[in-house]
Design brief:
Elements: H1 2-33, H2 38-65, E1 75-78, H3 79-87, E2 95-99, E3 105-108, H4 110-131, E4 137-144, E5 147-154, H5 182-192, E6 196-201, E7 207-214
Parallel strand pairs: 2-4
Antiparallel strand pairs: 1-3, 4-5, 5-7, 6-7
């Protein structure tokens, strides 16, 4: 149990660290180049970075508590804010957010939902890099009855049909690296919010991960 917990913590910590480093390097270049919109870039990155630091702190807290992992704090959450804080970490050139429905609030734990979207976006980036795709990841936010729906869409390598049924199982992975913990964690977080996660994919045609969350007060 200790080993698996440590592996999952390492997996989740790694997701935001690489793009945070890249973002800092991009800010440094922008400062050195004297770009006119540097204050705007700094403000946007600072907001995203602080949210991701909160996520890392929550991961550390969960690990420190081990068997007494804190319960999810289910409250009314601004879905747009959560999605954009995850997507913003990876840059507009890599991830675009399409809010087909605005002003949606869902029941969930903000920090954990950011962790879930971090994992989905990081996986999608791996897939498009492997496929050498130039099409950015698209994250769509919409409404479906009592639920808010978030789709993470990539034009990457896709998932073989025979593996789709097992994609959310712990320690199952389609990659040549990794531990197969990320998507199992996503499923756990979504289900803590009484939500549902599914995937649609064809090998070589990309994948769409679909998260449905109950709207707050509905």
């Amino acid at each position: 149990a200790w080993r698996e917990m440590a592996q999952q913590v390492a997996h989740e910590i790694k997701n935001p660290l690489t793009p945070l480093r890249l973002g800092i390097q991009q800010l440094e270049r922008a400062w050195n180049d004297g770009v006119d919109d540097f204050p705007t870039r700094l403000e946007r990155f600072t907001s995203t970075a602080l949210s991701q630091i909160d996520v890392l702190a929550a991961i550390a807290e969960d690990f420190a508590l081990l068997a007494v992992v804190r319960e999810a704090e289910i409250v009314s959450v601004d879905l747009s804010d959560v999605v954009n804080k995850a997507a913003g970490l990876y840059g507009e050139e890599n991830v675009t957010v399409d809010e087909k429905t605005k002003g949606l609030y869902v029941e969930g734990d903000s920090s954990r939902l950011i962790r879930a979207f971090n994992n989905l976006i990081a996986n999608a980036l791996d897939s498009i890099y492997e496929a050498d795709s130039k099409t950015p990841i698209r994250v769509e936010i919409s409404e479906e009855g009592r639920h808010a729906v978030v789709k993470v869409i990539d034009q990457g390598t896709g998932i073989p049909t025979q593996k789709l049924d097992r994609i959310f199982e712990p320690r199952f992975t389609t990659k040549t690296h990794g531990l197969g913990l990320g998507l199992a964690m996503v499923k756990s977080i979504v289900e803590q919010s009484n939500g549902d996660v599914s995937v649609e994919s064809k090998e070589g045609k990309g994948a769409t991960f679909i998260i449905k969350l109950l709207q707050a007060g509905r």
